[in-house]
Amino acid sequence: MQWWLQRESSRLQQELAVTKQAQLAQAMQMLQRPAEKWDADFQGNLGSLLGGRIRLLPATESKITPPPLPEIVALDQELKPGGAVARLTYAPPAAHRLAVLQRRVLVTTIVVALLLLLVPVLLNLIGRNDPNAATQSPWNRATAEMTGLEQLARITVERGEKLAHESGARRRAEENFQVSSTLLTQSHDERARLGRELHDNICQTLYAVSLTLESVRRKISATPEVWQRLEQSITELRRLNQEVRAYLSELGPEQIRVQSFTEVVSQMLDILPERADLKISRLLDEEVVALIQSHQTVEVVNILREAISNAARHGHARHITIRAEQDENVIALAVQDDGTGFPDGAPSNPLGHGLANMQARAKALGGSLKVESSLGKGTRVVLLLPVASAS
Questions:
Q1: What is the rounded CA–CA span in Å between residue 248 and residue 245?
Q2: What is the CATH number of the domain that holds 343?
Q3: pLDDT in tens, 91-103
Q4: In a domain, 256, yes or no
């Protein structure tokens, strides 16, 4: 019995070590955070989440640094080859489970012993009441009783092992769910932080550079070609600043959830580069666009933005129309322009990122994207979105 308990203890500790190692590897893969940004708060939160303590060690030191106590288990995970190592130390909680298991075995043993003590009494009673008892072998009857008791004890132990295994699997599933939820929350926090950094650094820098170039343009005298290049640079900086701000709006989907689709489209059009010779018309049926859910608004607006940008920049369009209509169970969002178009209904660069991104976004929404064009007659981009997906 002592040998069996030691074997079960080793098996439980190995299962826990495999589970902890998998959780640590999953956390490292999902976080993707450099070692220099692992501050004390981050290490403490991650260690609490994984049920232990997290420390960062150099790769050379991790091979010679033992755990702080003999009963402490240490697991190492490399952040990158040859770099720092994340060490998770924890105390195996197998002692409590082994104590419970030992009590169960002890109770089972006592029950079996009591049954064995009752066997002679039962045999005596059966022998008194059975007229054929004299012809039966007492040894055979005792052997049959012992076989039945042995099977009962084996079944009891097997059921105890199954219950312990199911309990461990349920606990591991709960721990994995908690890790996933925490990592998802951290991902949202990182997304918001990235948006703030882009706004505070890149947008402000682009704006300052454009202002500097404008002041330089007013103070220098140069050839027409230099003036034209300078004007193009200022225009491109403004366009780039507006595009970065557009991407910043995508990093905050919680703002879109409180806006209607028409308001989001208006906001998108306001930050597009302005052209005096370009007119954009909107024919959006409010009842139709109301069928578009808030979680789909970001992808739909990104498709419209790409189509409008292509029409203005590559098609040199002067008039762009946005329409929203419904045909039975399908919502049709169309962007029509009067630009140069392209021959045979296919763009000159079919593998361009713009069209590929629009196709991927449409597929993610459960819809499809059609592009119709002819040389000199403009282009028409149509997004077909099932009403069932939008509702």
A1: 5
A2: 3.30.565.10
A3: 766 555 665 677 7
A4: no
